[in-house]
Specification:
about 70 residues; mainly alpha
Length: about 70
């Protein structure tokens, strides 16, 4: 239980120092759930076939490219 809290505090510290730049997703609920995405973020996306996983990932990549 302590390790995730430490990891979150370290992430917030890097963000405050400007070492980690996050971009916000167009889906507020997903953005809130994952805590924003930044360089090196690894996200595991699972779901039924045809649920739209590839579409979501494509849109996230497009948004990342547009945000620079």
């Amino acid at each position: 239980m302590v390790e995730p809290v430490i990891a979150l505090l370290e992430k917030l510290e890097r963000e405050a120092k400007g070492e980690e730049r996050l971009f916000r997703l167009i889906w507020p609920h997903l953005d809130y759930a994952i805590g924003g995405m930044g360089l090196g973020t690894l996200l595991f996306l699972a779901g039924e076939a045809g649920a739209g996983k590839s579409l979501i990932v494509s849109l996230i990549c497009l948004q990342a490219e547009m945000d620079g």
